Every structure is written in C-alpha cells, then in structure tokens.
Amino acid sequence: MLGSGVAEFEISASGGILVARWHLLALLAGWSLAFAVAARSLVQLPRRTAMGLLVAGTLAFTGLAVAGHPELSDDLYRYAWDGHVQASGIDPYRYPPDDPRLSGLRDPWLWPDPAGCAQLHRPAGCTRLNRPDARTIYPPVAQEYFRFLHATGLTSWRERGLQLPAAVAHLALTGLLLAALRSLGRDPRRAVLYAWCPLALLETGMDAHVDVLAVGLAVGAVWAMERRRSAVAGLLLGFGTAVKLLPALLLPVALRRPATLAGRNAAVRRWTTVLGCWTAVLGLAYLPHVLAVGPAVLGYLPNYLQEENYGSGSRFLLLGLIGLSGRVAQDVALVVIAGAAGWSLLRRHAPAARVAVELTGIVFLVVTPVQPWYALLLVALAAFAGRAEWLLVALAGYPLYFAAVLNGNMTVLGRLPYGIAAVGVIAATGVRHFGEPGRVRHPAPSKPDSPDAAAARN
Predict the structure, then answer these.
(1) How far apart (Å, rounded) are the C-alpha atoms in residues 173 and 175?
(2) What angle do the packed helices 47-67 and 2-12 form, to 10 degrees?
C-alpha cells in the first residue's frame, strides 16, 4: 500500500506525459506492481480488517489523485468547452470550437494569450482543446454532465473543478461495487481490484474522464442482470451508452435468458424489455440534437474511427501477428466479436458479471485500443467478477498510448503488451479450469452402503 502511494505521488508530481515522457511509463509500471502486491495482500486479510483498509486506502489514493494535475490527457478541457457552449444556448454538435461564430466564447483559460501559449510551449493563438477543428464526439448524456459542471461553477475552478466530481464518481463506483458484491453474497474485498487500480485512479481523479459515469451505469446494469431486472438493466445500459458508447457491448449479456426461465415467450419478453428500454433512452437523449443539427449529431465519430485506423484494418494489432490486415482483418475482427457476443447469449448458467468481463475483454484484445481510459469498464467488471487476470488487458493499453503520443514504435509497443496480456488471461483461465498444478484432489465421499449391500459384502 505504501509503495502504491509513493508511486502515485511521483506520477502526480511528474509534470505529465510530455514532460516526464517514458519515465512516466516506468513509474506507472512500478505503481501497477505495487498495486498487485497490495491487492493480493488485502484479499487475504480477515474481512473486517480488509474492509477498513480498503475504505481508508481508497480515500487516501483518491485524494492524492485529485491533488495532481492531468497527466496523460487533455479531454477535460473539451468537457469544459462543451458545457460553456451549451450554457450559451448553442447545440454542442453544431460548430467545431475554432468556428469564428464561437469566438466570443473563448475564455483565457481554454484559449490563452501569447504569453500563456508560451508557457504551454505552444505557438501564439493556441488552445488547450484537442482537435479544435472537429465537432464534439461525446454523446448527449455526457453533454448534460458537461452542462452541469458549467452551471454549478465547477469549471471556474479549472482542472480541479473537473477532477473533483470525477473523483467523487470513482468513490461512488467503489461503493456500488461493494454493495453489489455484498447483496449477491460474494466477497466484497474484490472491490479493491477497481478501487486501488492505477488505471482507475489515474483516469478519474487525475485526468477526470467522463468514462467513470458510463462505467458506473454499466456496473449497475450488470447488478440488475444478476437480479433479473431486465427493465432496469436496459435503462441503465441506455444511459451508459449515451455517456460513452462502450456499455453497449454488454447488451448480449442483458439479453440472455436465465437458466430458470424456459420457453420462447420468456426470451421474447426479455429481448423486448431490454432493447425497448435501451432504445427509448437513446432515442429520447438524441432526439433534441437530431432535430437541431440533423446528421451532425454524430460529431467527430466517423472521422475518429478512420483516424484510429479501424477503417483501414491496421488497428487490429494482434490479428496482424498472424498476417491479417486491411479488409480481411476487419472481417475477421467482426466475426470474432460477433462470435463472442453469440457465445455470451448462450451462457445461461454463468453469472452476468463473469460473462460481461469476458466479452468485454475479448473485444479489447481484438480491437487493441490506444486510449487506456476506455479500459475503465474492463477494470470495474474484473472487480465485479473476481477475474483479476483481465486487468492485464486493461493496463496493456498504456505502452501503446505512450508510443502514440511520443512517436514510439506503435506496432511493437502495441502487440507486445496486448500479446502478453492475452497469454496471461489464457494461462489464468486454464489454471482456474483444470486446477492448480500439484493440487491434491480428494475423491468424493461414497454413499454409505445399504444394509443388504453391507451384509452381502461381509
């Protein structure tokens, strides 16, 4: 625990990725190792002692995260801008930030003067926003969150005003995991896999990513699936998808027919309920923006997919190891993801959390995303399901991200960590399925003989 705190403090004082560069990745690796030791030690403690340490550690780590500055991402500046635009009565999907019609909204924080740009090591006329020539990519419920941040005056506190609510959301999600695990009769100490995970703390308290809201809604949806609340699961997945698109991955898990329900009618009712609620939420969330700007409501999303090389097929790094690229890689990726979704639908007896983490993890191994904060969903699901091996996949995105920002070798620094993570998951799954090596298997006790059988044997 102490090692995690020291590593987190070093990262929070590092000056960010453009200053610390590869040294920051080394610090993150050390933090991850310290976290692994601390989490394993905690789950072996008596439950009452472990829970006290978990709560105290989570509060301390979260406070330390907020005390730092954004380390890896400048997305929070776009959040503040979108909230400001909406407060001015303009639909956030209508114009890109550098449109001259929005010039009156440019405040000195997000659009520094020449002296401010010089401090940022940027040319005069700079902005803190990324992609200022592109319309926003964030879905409508995320936009409502940005509007809330502006309306409450939190953005006037600059970075800290966005980090604080994200940190509160991190604490709330930890509490949600604890409540869900307790209610389902599972070990609440598992929550440490999310609460103390470097990725979770870095991407919420430090970098303030809105993904934490989507993940909280997704975890709530999985809890509802475990309790067979189809309507609640559909609604929560709808809201989660309207914050960030990733929770839509869990729809096949929500659509499964529980093993205790038989018949076509039960399956039809479940599909109708889940899809109806999910579609209704998305439709109502998007409708005002569609009426206002039409197809522009998609924002930068189509261009983003091209930018990330999904359109060319070169983003699927692990598929590239077996010589697949271009359209073939796209087709194989779609087949694998569709197969994983279909397999999830058929797993009627497995807990929803386990199916959810495995489906999400498989998708991540196929699409090998650059942005590590996308894996916040995978971290929370790994904690819910008690499958720590999937944290390897979540953390595998960091070397690739550093390579993308610092002009490193993205092919090597993408394939190597994601490949190691895939091997680790396969090995852990094999050990869990076949039992630990050297484990003594005791035969099941035999039933007592009947009096007649005993007499015949004697």
Answers:
(1) 5
(2) 10
Return all residues near 10 (Cβ < 8 A) that are at least 6 apart. Answer: 27
Q: What is the chain's Cα-based Rg?
A: 24
Neighbours of 330 (CB within 10 A): 19
Q: Which of 39, 381, 420, 374 is nearest to 192 (CA)?
A: 39
- Rounded mean pLDDT, 22-46: 93
If you average pLDDT over every residue of the chain, what do you get?
89
Report the alpha-carbon distance of residue 371 to residue 428 in Å, rounded: 25
Neighbours of 107 (CB within 10 A): 12
Q: How confident is the model at residue 9 (pLDDT cuts 50, 70, 90)?
A: low
Distance CA 284, CA 263 (A): 32
How far apart CA 177 and CA 270 sit, in angstroms, is 25
Q: What is the pLDDT of residues 399-435, one digit of tens each?
A: 999 999 999 998 899 999 999 999 999 999 888 878 7
Amino acid letter for position 334? L
Cβ pair 82, 146 in contact under 8 A: yes
Here the tokens at position 455 are: 């007499």
Whole-Å CA distances, 268 to 230, 271, 274, 431:
12, 5, 10, 37
Alpha helices for 68-191 (secondary structure H): 75-87, 114-119, 140-151, 159-183
